[in-house]
């Protein structure tokens, strides 16, 4: 935004912006829940969501200014304030760009953040919106509450003029709890401190204007000054049109029931662009001293179990091993062979085995040769 920063203690447009934020939040939650249901029905939910990293940020401010209406035309500009922190969440458009959880249950396993020359360190933050339901599960108009602080990570430093990858393990949901008569929509975004650098934001129309909030395809964010912290209840979201976060997140479904399992399988098939869970990266392994070492790769961080069974028939060749990959999503899992496994690989013998790897709600198998 090109308007010079102004100084004020409180934005005069806060009430109107809050009402717009609540309307958009309710619409976004409903739209994303419907989209998730439709996508689950066809079997391939989106794995990446929450913003866009295809172009660099062009917003030259940090949390020390709040985007606010600065004239009678409804134009937005940066307004200085005294808040020490802020939070931002993508709320529109209502597609994979939104920061709402894309399927009913799962976890955010990875964030990618595209930064400018002097990026502010950030904390990945999750907030929750709640909408009341009738006994038959229909949304109650005007009942949306925003927002409830849910989770916040430690502070991450970002690489200048680059995309920084951050491994995560944050549970999220976007579903109706009919028995509790409430619909839950979690949003993931970021928080930062004031006066420490610029934020990962791209302004798509300069200057932003209130009229742009009427376009459902136009990007829009929900902001808070100061930041939203866990267990905090906030009623002061500020909606800012034409703001697009230059970041995205990888979501792995872990929902219950057939839809959740279908989502997990679809995400697991998505490959490195949206893998949910992990995979063994070799077709041949060598048994040494009663052990086999299996190289495992996850998209981001993941936790789970590895089993080694005969490819045909019944029989376990190694003991089940739990594993946890937290940095880079790559590692080696060492399995101890059972008596049957040692016998099958004795001398120069080899055996076809099936590796069963379960992680982040996804179950994947691969045939390997053990010798």
Uncertain segments: 3-13, 26-46, 255-275
Order of helices and strands: EHEEEEEEEEEEEEEEHEEEEEEHEE
Shape: elongated
Total beta strand runs: 23
Report how far the terminal alpha carbons are from each other: 63 Å
Radius of gyration: 24 Å
Structural class call reads mainly beta
Number of domains: 2
Mean pLDDT equals: 82
The largest β sheet comes out as: 10 strands, antiparallel
Q: How much helical structure, as a percent, in the residues?
A: 10-25%
- Give the helix tally: 3
Give the DSSP E fraction (strand runs of 2 or more residues): 35-45%
Task: Produce the secondary structure layout.
Blueprint: E1 6-7, H1 14-42, E2 48-49, E3 65-69, E4 76-80, E5 85-92, E6 105-114, E7 122-132, E8 145-152, E9 163-177, E10 182-193, E11 201-203, E12 220-224, E13 238-241, E14 243-245, E15 247-253, H2 257-268, E16 278-280, E17 284-285, E18 291-298, E19 302-310, E20 316-325, E21 330-336, H3 339-344, E22 351-359, E23 362-370
Parallel strand pairs: 1-4, 17-23
Antiparallel strand pairs: 2-15, 3-4, 5-10, 5-12, 6-9, 6-15, 7-8, 7-10, 9-10, 11-14, 12-13, 16-18, 18-21, 19-20, 19-22, 22-23
